[in-house]
Each structure stands twice: as structure tokens, then as C-alpha cells.
Amino acid sequence: MIEAVRSAMDVSMAKDDNVVVFGEDVGYFGGVFRCTQGLQAKYGRTRCFDTPISESGIVGTAIGMAAYGLKPCVEIQFADYVYPAYDQLTQEAARIRYRSNGDFTCPIVVRMPTGGGIFGGQTHSQSPEALFTHVCGLKVIVPSNPYDAKGLLIAAIEDPDPVMFLEPKRLYNGPFDGHHERPVTPWSKHDLGEVPDGHYTIPIGKAEVRRAGSAVTVVAYGTMVHVALAAAEDAGIDAEVIDLRSLLPLDLDTIVKSVTKTGRCVVVHEATLTSGFGAEVVSLVQEHCFYHLEAPVVRVAGWDTPYPHAQEWDYFPGPGRVGRALAEVMEA
Fold first, then answer.
1. Which of 124, 180, 226, 269 is catalytic?
2. Is 199 a catalytic residue?
């Protein structure tokens, strides 16, 4: 995943001199997760550079550059650090196109590692994606594998509007095996897939069916796609697993088509349950698939609590919890 993200920026910078990369420690050091390693050496300090520890400054500068004609791809070192920049993102970046009647756009990408998996505790493990899906004018992407990460990141950099690009940390150093409830052997030979060299894009706003099935639909994104796949396999249930990839815009057609076929739905995400993005998915399924539902829609998510450092792997929805949810809807 790290190499795929780096390759996406490399390809984009080589193709377009207006693409610039900056953030905390992304230059000489190559980023805390090494996602930008080598980019400064290749493209110079004017196109890949370090910033002060000021998320508001990073995003504010990116907005100004974008209005001027550049295409900033900035890194927020951890998703937990994005809150000081929330005002810039919601009040400025998301609204420039509308406020200027189309005279200006804001082609920025804000990359940030999201979710748990490194025992980072409350300030290094949050999943704030739902905060951005509420904002008109932003696009929100959460890839589940390296191939998608590269194609979606290139598409995001080339998009004329602001894109929030959340990269699940548990997938950075894959391959990841969703069968494991705890980090006894969190990395196995479960391959996350190969990534082609060169330029390619994946359309923003299009989900992917990762596992075909007819008994129940499981909607997930990011790391939870792998957990959902493992849960369906372990439970022996003919589940159809949908990888949203893009939360905003959302591929509602793929969800409705699947739930209309299966009559059952389970929604899985790592963020806290209350007001998580799963609530939006449940509402849409209820609105569009009500007469096809054979059971209530069930959510499996993180706890409604500050992030528990010592209980991280109990906090995560694992294949056991997802499997029990699948059994529940099948028995209803």
C-alpha cells in the first residue's frame, strides 16, 4: 500500500509539473510511514517539501496554491491531526467553486493515515471519515488495497475539486489477513494484489463487489473489507461483499442492486457506531430497499468510547463480531 501511494504521487508529479507534495516530514525524511520517500530527491525541494507543524497552515496554503493553478497533494501525518484544518476544509476548500460561481476550483488532495493497528491510542488511531461526508463540496475516498489506492489517488490528484484520501494504516505494510482477531500473526500470505507501473485511474464514486453472493449483502470499506471477506468465509454464508471505495460520492446503485437481490444487509466500519458513516448507508438501504428487506439492517462498528489503547483489537470489528451479525440477520 505504501509503495502504491508513493507510485501514484510519483506518476502524477512526472506527468504534471503543477502537482506539489508537502506536509510534516514528507521531504527529506520521506514521511513518517515513508509514503513520500525519494520524491524530494527526484523532484526537488520546490515540489516536495516539509512544513511547520500546522495543519491549518498546510491546508490553507494548499487552498491558496490551488486557486493559483497548482495541484497540491498534502499529507496530514495522522487523521487525528486534521481537526485544526477542519475550518479551512469545510469553510474554504469545499466552497470555493460555489462561492466564486465556478471562477475558481480547489484541486487539492488531503492524504492521511486513518484507523488503528499500531497501538497509537486516542490521538493516532481515529477514523474521522464521517465528518467529511457531511460536507457538500468534498469527496471522500477510503481504499482497501494497493491497486485501488494508486488508481484512486491519481484520479483524486487529477480531480478539479478537493478530495479527502484516507489510507488505512493496518493495510500499509500488508499483506493483511482479515481472519485474525488479534495481532498474534496480523500479517500473513494473504496477498493484497499487484500494482501496475505507470499511469492509470479508477473512477471516483464507483464501488466494487469483492465477493458475489445471494444470502446477505455486506457493505464495508478500507480494512473492514478484508474482515468482512474473512467473516463470510469463516461463517460459511453466501454473502455478497461490497467495497465502497468512495464514500462521497457514494455508489448507491451497487448497494441497492445487491440488497434488492439478497434481502439482507450488514454494514461494517471501524469508526465509532453513533453517527458513523454506516448510519447513512442504513438509512439509504431503508429508503430504497424497504420492500425487499427480510430482516433489519445491522451495523458492526467500533465502540462509542474514546479510543481504547490497551483494548485496540477488541475495539476493532473482527471476523467474530461480523460473523455473529451475519448469523443474526440470517436467522431473523
1. 124
2. no
